[in-house]
Write a structure and sequence with these properties.
It is elongated, with a radius of gyration of 20 Å. By secondary structure, it is mainly α. A two-stranded antiparallel ribbon has the order 1-2. 70% of the residues lie in helices and 3% in strands.
Amino acid sequence: MTEEESEKNYSSGLPGILGVIDTAISKIESVILAMGVLLMALNTVTNVIARFVFGSSIMFSGELNRILIIMITFAGIGYAARHGRHIRMSAIYDALPVGGRKVLMIGISFFTSLVMFFLLYYSVVYILDLQSKGRVLPSLGLPIWIIYIWVPIGFLITGIQYLLTAIKNLTSRDVYLSTGVVDGYKDTETEV
């Protein structure tokens, strides 16, 4: 099964309402990421064509790509957490027995969740500060705070994902990197 198919058929390993929340967030993330990447590609290609064919760029193209990059980045952190694709420094973790790895993963997941919620709080404070200043984007005329709305949404989704990972590790026998990814290394060695 390809990565695309596994995402389309994603089903949380969590029981009850937690599984429903996890699956719903997964679907929302997929739509946001797909739309963001497609819109950014379309905007960039259209701008290049406009510049070379008509001799002038689209006025708001840079601002739109800035919005889309922020959206993709902060939707992507939740996606990375869901699929266990986040960066890991695992020398000590790998040396531990299964029980130690499980305890450490629960601690890491809870701590990371708390950090994400802490950053969520400060990103909301930052957005409220931007809103009070009344600045707008020059070409689009949108208030600047609107383009940063993806930051707290991304931190919220990622915080929830790490919290769900900690719960998954508390309620299962195996060690999970995320709600659907069991700890372990795939054999990536290929013969030449």
